[in-house]
């Protein structure tokens, strides 16, 4: 049972990170800022997602 719950939580986490990347890509931020945010989200998913929610583009 533990593996299924872990897999489900991992899938949910992946969907949230992909959603954040799409939101960054569609934002009004400049191209370089978008690139930096996407790289941060890809390489540091937990910290990157928290930082994006707090400091990321709001558009």
From TrEMBL:
GO terms for cellular component: plasma membrane. It is found in: Cell membrane. Its main location: membrane. The chain crosses the membrane at residues 6-24, 36-55. Residues 15-57 form the Cardiolipin synthase N-terminal domain. It comes from Vreelandella maris. This is PLDc N-terminal domain-containing protein. It is a multi-pass membrane protein. Keywords: Cell membrane, Membrane, Transmembrane, Transmembrane helix. It holds the Pfam family PLDc_N. InterPro entries: CLS_N.
């Amino acid at each position: 049972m533990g593996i299924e719950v872990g897999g489900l939580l991992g899938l949910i986490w992946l969907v949230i990170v992909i959603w954040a990347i799409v939101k960054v890509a569609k934002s009004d931020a400049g191209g370089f800022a978008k690139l930096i945010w996407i790289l941060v989200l890809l390489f540091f998913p937990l910290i990157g997602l928290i930082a994006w929610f707090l400091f990321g583009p709001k558009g």
